[in-house]
């Protein structure tokens, strides 16, 4: 542990990795709370995969991958919405169709892109190679996402909890949906280097789901989720550094460990307490 | 009739299937108005179309000469309970607090006085001891009382309630109707989608009978007559006949 702290103080790349991971943990935790409450976990998975062709095209054209990824993330969100609204195909199915198509295109394009960045590092992330520009981009995206959520917190809360009530208030549910899709795309792009495309969805939903088991208030859920995200990022990075594990995988497994603990021992919802209570009740009846 | 609710030539369809046609009626405000009709008659659809929550194919709705969009802040809507995620991390008091949101405007947070007002509304429906509970821990009747409290928190003039008495206990139903009557006595208006014909005359001043179109609309004593009811409840009129016998 002290070696890790010493190394952080010594190596700049490690400082950047830690800082970026913590920001990613926080913004994923905050946005993820809304994502899981709106039943859009699969949408998170879809958008994260579908940014791949955008990343590839950006390399080809020679621009920052941010722009290409955001474009394709939004295309995916609109495409899925369009198919769901204009056919009898259900939402989860249209999500599957659209994102796998984009992902397939991405795999082909990455091969043609002739870039030093290989598919593996995009798919699985490599936080130890974070550059200054990446770090600032993550920080900027994080600030924008948090600001939007803070400013529109009331509206997000109502439209997530009770869309019909929100509509009767005159709130534009559709615009709110696409606003969240934009934020989701931004967060995905910001998380690419830390956990990679494949595992972004875990950062989005696992800390949020853990927090969901621990509280009955949205504001507290978001706070816990953000803290768990940051904590998982830090611990995961430490494990990754010490045992030489891939950073994304290590971070995700830490979030999973937190979830398992909450799943078993959450004061209200933990299955351990639940089954103890049930057993107690049954013996009392005998 | 300066503050009448006027619906003119309203048509609504879902995916090309006509649900409501030629719907026109004028109702006075300051009254308790029931909306009844057989299953699938378009009662909830009528309410949603009037509120502008679903697109209309044709027709206009005005209240006191103004469009719904103009007077949205004076309207409180209580949707059917079935549409809500009961596991949502929100307490009873915070649910009522949502009713203050339209008056706050963008970027403003509810303050202490809003919380106190929400608490007072909870007291009105006798649910203040449940303030810190999660919303899903309540019974059906208690949930409905909380939603009425939220509508009260909106300080609206016109209340729209969609099937508020479905699956709730007798005490909650009596409490809700007494609050609606109190609102009416203070000059407010309430429209209630309802399905239990036995209590219609006790509950409402006016009645709108719907079955794809308007079968009758007006004072409950003039509208709630066997002719009209048979016309609306064609398939269920045997039941209606037996009810008439029972009540006479």
From TrEMBL, chain A:
The chain crosses the membrane at residues 17-37, 57-83, 95-115, 135-153, 165-189, 195-214, 221-241, 247-265. It comes from the Bacteria. Pfam families: ABC-3. CDD domains: TM_ABC_iron-siderophores_like. InterPro entries: ABC_BtuC-like (IPR037294), ABC_TroCD (IPR001626). It is found in: Cell membrane; Membrane. GO terms for cellular component: ATP-binding cassette (ABC) transporter complex. Keywords: Membrane, Transmembrane, Transmembrane helix, Transport. GO terms for biological process: cellular response to iron ion; response to zinc ion; transmembrane transport. It is a multi-pass membrane protein. PANTHER family: ABC-TRANSPORTER METAL-BINDING PROTEIN, IRON TRANSPORT SYSTEM MEMBRANE PROTEIN HI_0360-RELATED. This protein is probably a component of a manganese permease, a binding protein-dependent, ATP-driven transport system. Belongs to the ABC-3 integral membrane protein family. This is Manganese transport system membrane protein MntC. It comes from Lysinibacillus alkalisoli. The gene is mntC.
Automatic annotation (TrEMBL), chain B:
Pfam families: ABC_tran. It comes from Lysinibacillus alkalisoli. Belongs to the ABC transporter superfamily. Keywords: ATP-binding, Nucleotide-binding, Transport. Signal peptide: none annotated. CDD domains: ABC_Metallic_Cations (cd03235). InterPro entries: AAA+_ATPase (IPR003593), ABC_transporter-like_ATP-bd (IPR003439), ABC_transporter-like_CS (IPR017871), Metal_Ion_Import_ABC (IPR050153), P-loop_NTPase (IPR027417). Gene3D superfamilies: P-loop containing nucleotide triphosphate hydrolases. This is Manganese transport system ATP-binding protein MntB. GO terms for molecular function: ATP binding; ATP hydrolysis activity. Residues 5-237 form the ABC transporter domain.
């Amino acid at each position: 542990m002290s070696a890790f702290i010493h190394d952080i103080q010594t190596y700049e790349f490690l400082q950047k990795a830690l800082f970026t991971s913590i920001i990613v943990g926080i913004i994923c935790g905050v946005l993820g709370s809304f994502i899981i409450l709106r039943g859009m976990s699969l949408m998170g998975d879809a958008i994260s995969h579908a940014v791949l062709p955008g990343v590839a095209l950006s390399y080809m054209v020679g621009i920052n991958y941010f722009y290409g990824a955001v474009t394709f993330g939004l295309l995916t969100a609109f495409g899925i919405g369009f198919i769901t609204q204009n056919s009898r195909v259900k939402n989860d199915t249209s999500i599957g169709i659209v994102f796998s198509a984009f992902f397939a295109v991405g795999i082909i394009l990455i091969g043609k892109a002739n870039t030093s960045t290989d598919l593996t590092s995009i798919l699985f992330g490599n936080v130890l190679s974070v550059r200054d520009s990446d770090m600032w981009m993550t920080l900027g995206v994080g600030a924008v996402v948090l600001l939007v959520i803070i400013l529109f917190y009331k509206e997000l809360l109502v439209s997530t909890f009770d869309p019909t009530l929100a509509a009767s208030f005159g709130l534009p549910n559709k615009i709110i949906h696409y606003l969240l899709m934009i934020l989701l795309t931004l967060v995905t792009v910001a998380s690419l280097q830390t956990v990679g495309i494949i595992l972004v969805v875990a950062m989005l939903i696992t800390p949020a789901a853990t927090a969901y088991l621990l509280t009955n208030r949205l504001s507290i859920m978001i706070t816990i989720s953000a803290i768990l995200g940051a904590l998982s990022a830090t611990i995961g990075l430490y494990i990754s550094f010490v045992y030489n594990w891939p950073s994304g995988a290590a971070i995700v497994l830490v979030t999973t460990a937190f979830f398992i603990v909450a799943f078993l021992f959450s004061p209200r919802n933990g299955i351990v307490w639940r089954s103890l209570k049930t057993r107690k009740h049954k013996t009392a009846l005998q | 009739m300066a503050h009448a609710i006027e619906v003119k030539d309203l048509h609504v369809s879902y995916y090309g299937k006509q649900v409501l046609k030629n719907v026109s009626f004028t109702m006075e405000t300051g009254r308790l108005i029931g909306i009844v009709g057989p299953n699938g008659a378009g009662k909830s659809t009528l309410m949603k179309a009037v509120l502008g929550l679903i697109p209309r194919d044709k027709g206009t709705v005005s209240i006191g000469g103004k469009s719904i969009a103009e007077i949205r802040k004076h309207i409180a809507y209580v949707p059917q309970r079935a549409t809500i995620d009961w596991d949502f991390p929100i307490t009873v008091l915070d649910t009522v607090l949502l009713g203050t949101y339209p008056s706050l405007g963008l970027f403003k947070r509810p303050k202490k006085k809003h919380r106190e007002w929400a608490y007072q509304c909870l007291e009105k429906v006798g649910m203040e001891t449940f303030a810190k509970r999660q919303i899903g821990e309540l019974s059906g009747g208690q949930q409905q009382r909380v939603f009425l409290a939220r509508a009260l928190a909106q300080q609206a003039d016109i209340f729209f309630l969609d099937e508020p008495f479905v699956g709730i206990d007798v005490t909650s139903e009596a409490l809700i109707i007494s609050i609606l009557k109190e609102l009416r006595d203070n000059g407010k208006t309430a429209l209630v989608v309802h399905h239990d014909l036995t209590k219609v005359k006790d509950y409402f001043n006016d009645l709108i009978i719907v079955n794809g179109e308007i079968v009758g609309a007006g004072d409950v004593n003039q509208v709630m007559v066997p002719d009209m009811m048979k016309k609306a409840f064609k398939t269920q009129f045997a039941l209606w006949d037996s009810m008439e016998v029972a009540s006479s």
